[in-house]
Amino acid sequence: MDANLREYVVDRSQGFCEYCLISQRYFSERFQIEHVIAHQHRGETIASNLAIACSRCNRHKGPNLAGIDPESGALTRLFNPRSDTWIEHFVQRSSGIIEGLTAIGRTTTYVLDFNAERRVELRAAIEKLATKEL
């Protein structure tokens, strides 16, 4: 990947994981550029197929394109940060929990393990800090 494409993808994310929306500023390791559709599924290294992901989201997503909706049991595609709008599929509660509002949101929340205990605690602490800063 050339430097200009990398810079564009990083800038477009505004410093946030495009899956769980956690800010890069809370991590020492640099977020990763992720193929929304993996190479093994013929995904290209082009801007419209790249997203910034924290290492946890990237690791859990892997090459997955879909998962099983925990509510309906149906095979459901994962959230695509290039074509989907986050607030249509998810809501983050002040407790730090990310709730899936749609089948896509529920499936992505489950597959990417958004609500692992330490991540929920981190998001709750960030929310509390942000409230104090206001």
Automatic annotation (TrEMBL):
This is HNH endonuclease. GO terms for molecular function: endonuclease activity; nucleic acid binding; zinc ion binding. InterPro entries: HNH (IPR002711), HNH_nuc (IPR003615), NA-targeting_endonuclease (IPR052892). CDD domains: HNHc. Residues 4-59 form the HNH nuclease domain. Pfam families: HNH (PF01844). Keywords: Endonuclease, Hydrolase, Nuclease. Signal peptide: none annotated. PANTHER family: SLL1193 PROTEIN, TYPE IV METHYL-DIRECTED RESTRICTION ENZYME ECOKMCRA.
